[in-house]
Amino acid sequence: MKSQPIATPTGPEVELVRLSETIWRVCDCRCEDGDTRKILGYLQQLNGGYEMLWMRPRAGVSQQYSTFAAATEGINRRLLTLP
What we know:
Blueprint: E1 4-6, E2 14-18, E3 23-28, E4 39-46, E5 49-54, E6 61-65, H1 68-79
Antiparallel strand pairs: 1-2, 2-3, 3-4, 4-5, 5-6
């Protein structure tokens, strides 16, 4: 499956790239391609909700969200705290 950015309510600084029917790569658009900080993490639809596995600022931290909208809102809030 070819990865393509999808439109989301996340705003101009976050891009979600669909990797499968249930997984998205979450990218920080403030970073240039090739910058290791560009990938914020991975969002996965699980058991009727969504889980964000963060790669920044510390890999392996996950957060649970009840809806896709709540996940994108949570991602935006956390992005504001990252350098």
